[in-house]
Amino acid sequence: MRLLLNVIWFVLAGLWLAIGYALAALICFVLIVTIPFGIAALRIGVFALWPFGQTVVRRPDAGAASGIGNVFWFVLCGWWLALGHLIVGVALCLTVIGIPLGLANFKLIPVSLLPLGRDIVSVEEAQALGFAPTVDLGMRR
Fold this sequence. Notes:
By secondary structure, the protein is mainly α. It has one domain (2-136). Helix content is 68%, strand content 9%. Strands 2-1-3 form a three-stranded antiparallel β-sheet. Helix 1 runs antiparallel to helix 2, helix 1 (2-30) crosses helix 3 and helix 3 packs antiparallel against helix 4 (99-113). The chain is globular. The chain crosses the membrane at residues 7-24, 30-50, 62-81, 87-106. Keywords: Membrane, Transmembrane, Transmembrane helix. InterPro entries: Inner_membrane_protein, UCP028777, YccF. This is Integral membrane protein.
């Protein structure tokens, strides 16, 4: 089921969202000081390509630097990436087959707004480590 949802996601939303994250990474790489943000954008962009079966967990060692970095991320890239998720999510919810994918897009908005201090892991790995997922797209099998 994950494979089917990931393929449908890739065609309807994932490719376009990943292009947005790649553009954000390119902007961050050009500005040189924000290269760590570019790396975060690429990491989330890969997650946006194939999200089902993976989840986002908070890193317990994330501190004030992640919080400050999230403020810069929000100003530089976060708000327009979250807007992209919102627009795609609403568009997907207009169709019956797209409703679960639209809801998954809405669950990705917090990650696109504040990505620093979080890791992307498989659902099984998160459960094995005892983490409660912060973004769960509903596919645990």
